[in-house]
Amino acid sequence: MIGKKLLDAMNEQIKHELESYYIYLSMVAYFHSQNLDGMAHWMRCQAHEEMIHAMKFFDHIIDRGNEVKLLDLKQLKTSWNSPLEAWKEAYAQEQFITSKIHNLVKIARKENDFASDTMLNWFTKEQIEEEANADKNVRQMERVENSREGVFMLDRELGTRIFPAGSPLDPAAYNLAT
Ligand SMILES: [Fe+2]
Ligand SMILES: [Fe+2]
Questions:
Q1: Alpha carbon of 24 to ligand 1 centroid (Å)
Q2: pLDDT mean across residues, the chain
Q3: CB 16 within 8 Å of CB 127
Q4: How far away, in angstroms, is 126 Cα from ligand 2 center?
Q5: Å from CA of 48 to ligand 1 middle
Q6: CATH code at 13?
Q7: Model confidence over 35-71: pLDDT tens digits?
Q8: Which helix (H) or strand (E) segment is 95 a member of?
Q9: Ligand 2 centroid from CA 132, angstroms
Q10: What does the pLDDT read at residue 26?
Q11: How many Å lie between the centroid of ligand 1 and the Cα of residue 126?
Q12: Does 171 map to a domain?
């Protein structure tokens, strides 16, 4: 079983990952409202990943014989002043998540919870990728921000991200694809 301190922090982490899911989904709505369907598509793929992250913690807690406790999500933001501001916030969210993952690793090691330490290894590596992707998007957006063509091209490029197989956020999954 997982010790109390780590268990509480992992239940807390489910909330953080679901908050990532929810804020990214809100950004999907925002990007669509700005006619940036490619960016919206990229964020849909990312939101899907966040749900998977939450479920990895969910299942780890259950597999170890502990109880999942879902917590209230924080107040959701629904609009941004610019696409760049949204991308910057996505990057900040990932930096926040990284700090939380590192904290979980610290607790797991202190408690000699080797099973959780191994499971958290995946997240430590994943966060390197998540931060790199988010940072790249911010820098690309900064570069093209004042050019209509540049924004158009970037939107096109981000729209090519491949959905994880069977994603419920893929319009094709519920036959609404046009
Ligand atoms: Fe995540
Ligand atoms: Fe990822």
A1: 11
A2: 96
A3: no
A4: 6
A5: 10
A6: 1.20.1260.10
A7: 999 999 999 999 999 999 999 999 999 999 999 999 9
A8: helix 83-110
A9: 10
A10: 97
A11: 8
A12: no
The CA-based diameter of the chain, rounded to the nearest angstrom, is: 55
| pLDDT recorded at residue 173 | 83
Token output for 118 = 């191994």
CA–centroid distance, 10 to ligand 1, in Å, is: 13
Full domain range(s) for residue 26: 4-164
Domain count for the chain: 1
Evaluate whether residue 178 is within a structural domain: no
Give the pLDDT confidence score for residue 176 in this predicted structure. Answer: 60
- Torsion region of 166: left, alpha or beta (phi above 0 gives left; psi -120 to 50 gives alpha): left
Strand intervals (E) in the chain: none
Contact 131, 138 (CB under 8 A): no
Inside any domain, residue 102: yes
For residue range 149-175, list pLDDT tens digits in order: 999 999 999 999 999 888 889 988 876
Q: What is the pLDDT of residue 11?
A: 98
User: Which ligand is the nearest neighbour of the Cα of 42?
Assistant: 2
Measured in Å, residue 125 CA sits from the centre of ligand 1 at: 11
Q: 38 exposed, middle or buried (CB, 10 Å; 0-12, 13-18, 19+)? A: buried
Does residue 35 belong to any structural domain of this protein?
yes
Closest CA to 87 of 135, 22, 158: 135
Distance 156 CA to ligand 2 centre (A): 20
